[in-house]
Amino acid sequence: MFSTILSAAVLGMDIIFIHVEVDIAQGLPGFMLVGYLSSEVKEAGERVRVALKNAGIPLPPMRITVNLSPANIRKEGTAFDLPIAVGILKALGHISKECTDGMLVVGELGLGGNINPVRGVLPLVKKAKEEGIVRCLLPARNDREGKLIDGIEIIGVRDLQEVMEYLKEGKRYTIEKETDKRQKDKKQKGMKADDGRNILDFGEIRGQAGAKRAAEIAAAGFHNLLLIGPPGSGKTMIAKRIPGILPPLTEEESLEVSSIYSIAGLLTDDCSLIKKRPFMNPHHTITAQALSGGGKMVKPGMISLAHKGILFLDELPEFKTNIVDMLRQPLEEKKIRIVRLGGDYTFPCDFMFVAAMNPCPCGYYPDMGKCSCTPQRMKRYQGHISGPVLDRIDLCAGVSRITAKQLSQGNWEESSACIRNRVMQARKMQEERYAGKDYKYNALLPLAELKNYCYLDKREELLMEKAFQSTQMSVRCYYRVLKVARTIADLDGSEKVEGIHIEEALECRMGGEKYWGT
Prior knowledge:
- By secondary structure, the protein is α/β, with parallel strands linked by helices.
- Helix content is 38%, strand content 17%.
- The chain starts with a strand and ends in a 9-residue tail after the last helix.
- The relative contact order is 0.10.
């Protein structure tokens, strides 16, 4: 007696289809699992045997062999429990051979026959649809997540009894009976908990016009930003309000971000679709693995969870030097590749890097009346941030202390809504300009296209040449200044990059220069 059930394995962001082959034959009773399996997959034999028994389907005293093919790919996780159980039911003749045609099955079994949720369902269902699979049999708690993908039938099941009822008799049970209204609103319900705008507003910040302008430019072109200044001046306040001026995620971006969270196992029953741009703010004690991703069962790290959003490192020099330096490659390539003995995994990490720092350990430089740091101590503190990392930061804004008079005055401060309107207009220009391209905003503009979209007249070329020589900037820095100037021109509604835009880009680049010790 032989049967095959289609399932899938999640390897990084890739989905690999797995054929669960079950053979039941006469011989010494036993349950053998083969196919390059991790320990949790090997344990599936006992879970399946006990779950079937408690569901009223005891296994006969025969030799059961299960192969997860292809055998050269390592299988991890508990999602193969349900396909193994369905394969056994099919091989024993409890269900017909045709009932699983065109169906993909995943799910974890409890000993009582209940079916528990698994991670990675969203990208799995998306891949299944692309490959022409018509149905997916999933745990009921992954039901809403699977239904975010249109054009494929999702069957959510709570236990083995419901599996039997559906596969044997084609019954549709309570959890699958939805009103037309719920069907229409399923995506809105999925994103309900994550669809609001950021309640923090730039209008709450007094003064700091230069830092606010830098944040606006960074948001408009998705550029990296460093805020530097004394403690309590508003660096963290500004950073936490940047999500409120970013454009909302597109539907495509939302599914892409949600897929990463699905693989990480972070989607919940109440929020199965991420609709708000992520804002990741790790503590400075974070490990390299937690930031980059990895682990025994490889999962995306903090930089991938910040995909299409913001990675904010507060008190940047307090992070270990190797942690900060680890960002070099992801900041350039917008993806991270994790190579392990069990495989090669690639996760996307197209995030906007925002950092905040004090200029020195005590925080008060260059106010020598308060600063107690020696030059050596300052150099050691600022040396935690290497030159290559600083070179990848597009804008550096100084955030100075404000006076009591500024706090007490009731002057109107520009709200996040006003700033967001300008950012949206600039993004619209970029979308139209880069229509049909792989990139959508200025920060991703490739070098080969810079001359086409950042064309400079003779005056602007001389200005950049002078700045290049006087500041001894690197080639990377030179091109990044041009991209920032392109964003400033977009905010002004200008199709051409002019001298005034380059001057502001250079000023933004050197905005925190007075805080760097010599």
